[in-house]
Amino acid sequence: MSHIELTVLGGGNMGRALIGGLLRRGMRPEQIAVGESHEAARARLTRELGISATADNAAAIRHADLVLLAVKPQDARSILEALAPHLQERRPLVLSIAAGVRVQTLRQWCGPGVPVIRAMPNRPALVGAGATGIFAPPEVAPAQRAMAGEIMQSVGEVVWVPTEDALDAVTAVSGSGPAYFFLFTEILAQAGAHLGLEPEAARRLSIATLHGAGLLAHGGDGDLARLRAEVTSKGGTTEAAVRTLQAAGFDQLITRAVEAAARRSRELAEQAGGRSS
To answer: Is the sign of the CA dihedral 122, 126, 131, 135 positive or negative?
Structure first.
């Protein structure tokens, strides 16, 4: 990425995480410009990452090859419409991580001829272990797709999806997914305390188990059923627990939860004016 001139619009948690990931991968601070309206956030970027930031978004995108939109969805329209003449002049790739704002809407705000890609990272990107679903319309050039993929890979794994609607499923699986694992781990710790463990010991054991299971899953061949079977000895303790979960409809419950998240993602996109007619 030695040739990329990047502008990040928004210096919040996700913007900082991506900048940090890119710096760790060898991007130079002088390649990155940041547009950020809050003085405290600009000062933090300079102090922690050595990045220059400005409140002048037009100045920030002046030399950009890629503009990363990392602002709150409700702020995206005013920011992009104000920048539309500058975007149309240079036509950088706009890579949006603003949740729920659809490609067609982003194009309208940016103006004609500006290529747009959408990405949906999740919160573990803050520690470099993110999972990102990403979608590019057919007219986006392969080189621009590759550039967007490199940016998002700086904070974790990237999965390209074939349709924009699939990003609703990405939101439900990986975007909201960390909360599901946190909830399960929280309940696991409570169950351990109920069985007589000290609450702090139950919490530490549960968190370490979550962490270790994730490492095993990520470092292996991805065969989750095999990994589960390797832990589940016939007639043993794990089998008793798994059978109890399955008998209670655990599979169907998780499916309904993920479907509810995907449905809500579509609703929020429609409320934002993101779905085309």
So the answer is: positive
Q: Which residue has the tokens 């270790």?
A: 212
Which residue ranges form the domains of the chain, and what is each CATH number?
A: 6-161 (3.40.50.720), 175-266 (1.10.3730.10)
Q: Are 66 and 117 in contact (CB under 8 A)?
A: no
Sign, CA dihedral 182-228-209-170, equals negative
Place of tokens 């060898």: 26
Instruction: Encode pLDDT of 186-229 as tens digits.
Output: 999 999 999 999 999 999 999 999 999 999 999 888 899 999 99
33 touches 63 (CB < 8 A) = yes
- Complete DSSP assignment for 198-257: -HHHHHHHHHHHHHHHHHHHHHS-S-HHHHHHHH--TTSHHHHHHHHHHHTTHHHHHHHH
The single-letter code of the amino acid at 245 is L
How far apart (Å, rounded) are the C-alpha atoms in residues 216 and 209? 10
pLDDT tens per residue, range 125-157: 999 999 999 999 999 999 999 999 999 999 999
Instruction: Please provide the DSSP assignment of 165-211 as one string.
Output: THHHHHIIIIISHHHHHHHHHHHHHHHHHHTT--HHHHHHHHHHHHH
Residue 118: C-alpha distances to residues 48, 72, 92, 164 (Å): 28, 14, 14, 8
